[in-house]
């Protein structure tokens, strides 16, 4: 039973830690030296479904795959749990960013939940900046508190 709790904590901790990894990578790598790959995500100058920005999927998937493989082949529970946490975060990222926010697949269009509205608003503010400089809101699941407060403001009559 102790091992199960430890494994769940490792998966959960990895998932939470991935938000920090995603924020750091987005702010300093995607909006830095790899802007070439991320630029088309801010400038919609293409007609196709895929973007150069989708290249980052591989960059984020490789550590998860390696940890899952090491955990499976070498019976290393810690690596396996880390791989599971990375993979769950990747799935959450795909669902929230690609499907919910950018509507690459037309589902979850009419969500009126306060948390999802805050995520969508923060991401909209991120895309307000079309260049790599002066960006804001680089995270995905963790957004500044002000976007939650904006949801509660009553429209003035």
Q: How would you characterize this protein structure?
A:
The structure is a single chain. By secondary structure, the chain is mostly helical. Helices cover 68% and strands 0% of the residues. The chain has six helices and no strands. It has helices at 2-33, 35-42, 55-73, 77-101, 114-128, 146-152. Helix 1 crosses helix 2 (35-42), helix 1 (2-33) crosses helix 4 (77-101) and helix 3 (55-73) packs antiparallel against helix 4. The protein is globular and about 45 Å long. The model has no long low-confidence stretch (mean pLDDT 87).
Structure described in brief:
The protein is mostly helical.
Q: Given the C-alpha coordinates, what overall shape results?
A: globular
Low-confidence stretches: none
Q: Quick check: average pLDDT?
A: 87
Number of strands: 0
Rg for CA atoms = 18 Å
Largest sheet features: none
Structural class: mainly alpha
- How much helix is in the residues? 55-70%
How are helices and strands ordered from N to C? HHHHHH
Determine the N-to-C terminus distance.
57 Å
**Count of separate DSSP helical elements:** 6
Strand content: under 5%
